[in-house]
Amino acid sequence: MCRVSDATVKRWEDAGFLKSERTNGGHRRFRAEEVARFQRENNIGIKRCHGDDSIIKVNLLRRNGKISSDSKIFPALLYGCEAEAANLLIGEYLQQKTPAEIFDKFICPAMREIGELWAKGKITVAEEHLATLTAANAVHKLRTVLPVPASSGNLVICCAVEGDFHQFPTFLSQIIFENEGWEVMNFGANTPLDCLIKEILKHQPNGLCISATFIEDIAQFSEDYKKLLKRIEKVKTSVIIGGKAFETQANRKLFPNAEFVKTFFELAKLSRKIISNK
Fold it and tell me: How far apart are CA 170 and CA 211, in angstroms?
């Protein structure tokens, strides 16, 4: 990662520049967030180029007329280049980008483009699945280098609505909240509202973050949502909604007492606002 010998790393550790822990066998173990801090502060080993492999592949596709993307991460996701995608995300973090900025600038546009290609029949559902899983694994690797902030004492429940099988947005939301000091319970995709009510009453969360890419019967879901609000009114939970299904003003009006966020930057900002108003 730092492009130096192991002897150099040991000297850094001996000098106190880079902190490590010792295993039972006496070996040095360096936490990912500590390495990221050291690289960031000393500008050491930060990649400027993310490999030739994606360049070869993207040029081949352009010659075939299949894609015309300028996204740096797009080809890595489309071809399942997990390490390359993770290196790009971690590199951006080392350049002082927040997780919200990384998601909004790289992950969301690339995944939106991949979804549009699938909708037009230019890539298969298998390729779309590969890209999504590659993105999720790359983000997971980014998550391992993020420092753990001090706990705010707040708890949030994240989920996608029943019938929505997109789990990735809930995972991205989880990371945003974690980075702001929240404890997170992520129920993932396809979460029925009646089960959600039980969990809210049980755990008394400060926030509820609902993602929806598609809602089959939005009028019925709105009625069920209002029943949920009535059942949990004593919990004083802040409700946050996001996703394509909530993008129109008409749809958002169907969900009273909910804050709509369009970007992960907005989600991070709102999470901090909730903490300050607690």
Answer: 7
How far apart are alpha carbons 31 and 277 in whole angstroms?
34
Give the 3-state secondary structure of residue 191.
strand
Per-residue pLDDT of the chain (278 residues; tens, 9 = 90+): 777 888 889 989 998 999 999 888 888 898 878 888 888 888 776 554 444 444 445 555 544 555 556 678 998 999 898 888 998 999 899 888 999 999 999 999 999 999 999 999 999 999 999 999 999 999 999 998 898 899 999 999 999 999 999 999 999 999 999 999 999 999 999 999 999 999 999 999 999 999 999 999 999 999 999 999 999 999 999 999 999 999 999 999 999 999 999 999 999 999 999 999 87
Alpha carbon distances (Å) from 24 to 16, 21, 27, 198, 223: 21, 10, 8, 44, 58
Q: How does DSSP assign 17-28, residue by residue?
A: SS--EE-TTS-E
Largest CA distance in the chain: 65
* Residue-range domains of the chain with CATH: 6-42 (no CATH), 53-145 (1.10.1240.10), 155-277 (3.40.50.280)
What is the value of pTM for the model shown?
0.78
